[in-house]
Amino acid sequence: MVKAPAVFVVSDSMGETAQLVARAAMSQFAKGTVELHRFGYIDSVEAAKEVITLARTRPSLIIFTIIIPHVREYLRKACIGHRIPAVDIMGPALEGLEEITGHKAIREPGLIHRLDEQYFSRVEAVEFAVQHDDGKDPEGYRRANVILLGVSRTSKTPVCMYLANKGIRAANLPLVPEVPLPPELHRIPVKKLVGLRISPPKLLSIREQRIQTMGVRGNSDYADLRRIQEELNYADTVFRDLGCEILDVTERAIEETAVTIMDRVRSWRG
Q1: Does the global pTM surpass 0.90?
Q2: Domain final position from 86, 109, 132
Q3: Residue (of 66, 65, 59) closest to 85 by Cα position
Q4: By the 8 A CB rule, do 171 and 132 touch?
Q5: Is 1 within a domain?
Q6: What is the domain count for the chain?
Q7: Range of the domain at 258
Q8: Cα(263)–Cα(192) distance, rounded to whole angstroms?
Q9: pLDDT tier at 98 (50, 70, 90 boundaries)?
Q10: Which tens digits make up the pLDDT trace of 184-199?
Q11: Pair 128, 255 in one domain
């Protein structure tokens, strides 16, 4: 009894790309006309031979995304020799890119999935930064790579978002004399804590601009120099009690602060 026709999806990685192409083509035929078989991580000639052996038992089409040159060449020649229709998805694309760029492809299986992992890591970090911005959800601090502490307008949020776009989970906590520190903060390794310090005149200028932007009229403690000094003194006390590293952001750009913190995180990550 002749077995039903089949599409063999073959890859030296997961095979998702070839499978998408196969399914798209199969959708143009009545359901059940062709079977689909997926073979991932075919990274040797021996493994490829097993696929060829199976493909020879029935009418077959092989759709492959093989990056490893000698495995790809074997599969290509074997399909020709055994008259098995084959579609090489990656080969012509790689060769075309090599021609127009003048560079050889890396030809390392699975690189796209590493890029995907980096992308999803950044997405997760951005979501984490939003969920833990401005003192929200202290219970999640244990999952943070770094926690920024400082009074209002010391660039905590933009620095956290910059870090998040580099895949670093960053939370931030505003320091206000009248608001007790969350108990979760004392359970965090001190190496994860970074205090942001700023000079009183610089902070006064930033807050005055903020008030103007918001259209607030009249006197406000928010931009009162004595109040600012009180907040900064309190912040220094917190930094000292926690024993955390302190960064002076008075003359630092957001990017410069973020890069300094990134270097710190990477150093203790190992």
Answers
A1: no
A2: 109
A3: 59
A4: yes
A5: no
A6: 2
A7: 115-269
A8: 12
A9: confident
A10: 999 999 999 999 999 9
A11: yes
